[in-house]
Amino acid sequence: MECMGSAIMDTGDCQPLYYSIRDYYEGMNMKLVQQIPMLLVDRQALNEAIVGEKHGFLHVPETRGLCLSEEQTVTSVTAILVLYGLPRLLTSAILAHELMHGWLRLNGYRNLNPEVEEGICQVLSYMWLESEIMPASTSTSSASSSSSSSSVSKKGGRSRTENKLGEFFMH
Question: What is the mean pLDDT of residues 49-59?
Answer without folding.
Answer: 61
